[in-house]
Amino acid sequence: MSNIILAIECSMNYCSVAIYKKKIYSFLTKCEKKHTVKILPIIYKILKISNTKLQEINYIAFSQGPGNFTGIRIATGISQGLSCALNIPILGISTFSILAEQAWRKYKAKKVLVVMNAQINKFYYAKYIKNSKSLWIGEKTESLLRENQISNKINNLHKNWTLVGNSWNHIPYKKKIFDQKDIFFPHAKDIIPLALLNINLKKFMNYNQFNIKYLDNLFTKK
User: Fold this and answer.
1) Are 139 and 218 within 8 A, CB to CB?
2) What is the pTM assigned to this prediction?
3) How many domains does the chain have?
């Protein structure tokens, strides 16, 4: 019998959930600052759509950040609670790798640059590359930078990079050598392929073994 995975994404202004049960069922809604109110109803909705009982779930995967502080805490709390109650493993997935996976799903992009709004004059940045084993490599590049720092990083790159995220309009870059796509927020359906890869590699945890990514401690004034 195949594994059943529940995926939860609350790191930005949208909430989304997905169930993997031989195929992917997903649901997305705009949350703004109402993550707490909206996420549980859409979890119950996706369970109903997929004809899945909560007790049938084998793994829970969620976006562990970077992103909205409140949204990440909510997704983390729900995932921890379900993991503890159901006695099943959880998988924390980087928000940026989820965005990169969406670029792969839609455009077959293998080299992805992510820029997301963080705070005034601060932007989340990451550079992800899909390797021969379909794993996204780039977690160590995740950082919180000013626009000029990001420009300095990307203007030394060559062609074939796909740009995703909601803040490229703030970053000066050479438009002719990059391919900007309309991917502005992560979706839970893109957590599923990443979760499956990690499950195969046995990279999952108990409910009390993971760290949330905020990145604030990486910001410098240089």
Assistant:
1) no
2) 0.91
3) 2
